[in-house]
Structures are given as structure tokens and as C-alpha cells.
Amino acid sequence: MTTSVPEDLKTPYVFLGRSGLKVSNICLGTGTFGESRTGRPGQTDEQASHELINRFVEWGGNFLDTADIYGSGLSETIVGKWLETQHRDKFVIGTKVRGNMGTQENVNNVGLSRRHITKSIDRSLQRLHTDFVDLYQAHQFDPATPLEETFRTFDDLVRGGKVRYIGVSNFNGWQMERVVNTARTLGINPIISLQQQYSLVCRESEFEAFQVCKSAGIGVLPYSPLKWGLLAGKVKRGVQPSDGRLGWAAQQGGRGNQFTDKTFDIVEAAETIAKTRGRTTAQVSLRWLLQRDVVSSVIIGATKLAQLDDNMAANGWSLTPEEMKQLDDVSAPVTTYPYDRQRLNGDRFNPAIKDSHVKSTST
């Protein structure tokens, strides 16, 4: 049985990037909703998924993230069945497009072409039981489609009312810069967000992609903030996981390179701070993200109410500057050429130049 959430612990609302859209600073990711089509563990059925959303709302959450490819449409369907019982305008719904949602025989059922996007948005709207999506995101870069085609199509969807804002996911630095410049050149609606894997053990996007975000006012939406439970302290140094998502991933041959001494130095540093502050390791790991200046909202996943409650309790308190620095230092990514040349900038920082803040690759 869950307890009521005190008002002072509920999630605050922040602007998403430079837009006027306000979202809860924690977003509920729905990639675990629906029966797994790949054997991935930790999926939730419709009833459990709806219970998780309801509890998230009790915490003050108003931002849900999904994608057409999650469960081959099943995640969107589960969210849609819940959404049709709610006041639609209270919630911000984000979904994504790019993946193959049909059979391999249909060669046009994948990518970011005008044809695929316009077909995909209609199907997503049907599954979500809504006539508009708040945030429509390119799930990954598509090298086969001109950016002009993709983002003119997104702009048309905004102008037509099917989409309110647009964003991207899993884009690297040069791709982000091209997207920003394409929107400026064409005079079309710019992106407001970058959904990216980001955590204490995955900080490489700070080198370039996030610098573009800072310069252009794009909000970052970190996903996998706990690296499938690794940053919650679920795995100990020298122990190979055998169950859960980390165990499944290790068996599939993926994510095995994350079980390094550096990774466990990071986890143990977070654990030490957690014990000192009377918090959990997961809360410390999430809190570090919430205090990063480029982050708008952190996307969490949950399969159990207790897990959701623990993650949501990352709000209502703060890490000290000393604790932030400790975590910054232990998790700093390896700085290789040419990024190591940034240190030669020294104190050459001009606040009148908005790109001048790009003076460090670790902030």
C-alpha cells in the first residue's frame, strides 16, 4: 500500500529547453510497458503500467515518454488507454519515429522520410488516443534522408496541429549542429530537446552534442540515468550479473564493457555519499543529473511502485557543491585529442559570446 506524497516532495516543473513548455523535472519512460518481443526482462502488463503512471502523477509528474517502436506499438497503446481516462491538457506526451514498424517487405516503413513520418504520426496518434503529440522526436539520425526533408515534414506537422514541439534522440555533435543550422536556414520550427543516454558512467555527449544544446537553448532529456540499475548499486565489483536487465544484456553480449574498475569507483563514490546523506545510491545518481545545467528532465524507468517511489525521491534535496565535484571528478570521461586542447583556452571566457562557455569538456 502506497502512502500519499507530501506537497514539498513533489516534482518541480521546469521549462523544456528554451521553449515555453513546462514539464516535471522527472519524466516517466514507458519502454518497459507491454509484453517483451525480444525476451528482455522487467516488462510490465497494462494494469501494472497504469498503476505506475498513476503513482507518478501522485508525485506531480506530468511528462510521459514513449516511442512507436517500444513493444511494436504496445507501449503507446497502453499509454493511450490510460490517457483517454484523463484530462489530456494536464499531461505532456512525447513519442518518437524512425524505427521499422512493419514487415521487411515494405522498404519505406523505416527512417525519417516524409512518407514514413506522416504515416507514423497518424498511427501513433491512434494508439495514444489523442489528436496531438506534445513532443515528437526523431529516434535516431537517418543518413539516407536529407535533413531538409525530415525537418520540413516536422514543421508541417507543427503547423497542422498534430505536433506541438519537435526534438531528436541519439544524435551526435555534428548532427546536432546540422539540425540547428538547417532550422535557421529554412526558417522553420527549431528542435527544443535532445534525448540522450546520459549518466555518471556515460558522459561522452558532453564533448560536443551538449555544447550545441547549451549554445542553441536545447534541453537535454537523459535516458538510462541508472544504466539499468548499475548506478543503483545492484552490481558489486567483481560480480558478473546473472539476472535482471543487466544480466540479460551481459548474456546478449551487450554492455559488458561497463563493468570496469572506473565504473565501480563511481558507484562506490555514490554509495558513500548516499550513506552520509541518508539516501539511496540511485537517488544520488539521479540527483547528480538533476543538478546538471544542461538537463531539463530526467527520464526514469520503473517496473515496481517501490522502485518508482525511490527514484522520485531524488527531488526535495540537493547535493552540495563538494559532493557534485566529487562525482564530477570520479566520473570524468577520458579527454582525448582534440578535446584536450580546450584547456589551452585558460581564462579566455567572454560572457557576451554565447558560445564562449564552451571552455571545458566536462561541464
From TrEMBL:
Pfam families: Aldo_ket_red. This is NADP-dependent oxidoreductase domain-containing protein. It comes from the Eukaryota. One of its GO terms (molecular function) is oxidoreductase activity. Residues 25-330 form the NADP-dependent oxidoreductase domain. The keyword Flavoprotein does not apply. Keywords: Oxidoreductase. It comes from Candidula unifasciata. InterPro entries: AKR (IPR020471), AKR_Detox_Biosynth (IPR050523), Aldo/ket_reductase_CS (IPR018170), NAD(P)_OxRdtase_dom_sf (IPR036812), NADP_OxRdtase_dom (IPR023210). Belongs to the aldo/keto reductase family. Aldo/keto reductase 2 subfamily. GO terms for cellular component: cytosol.
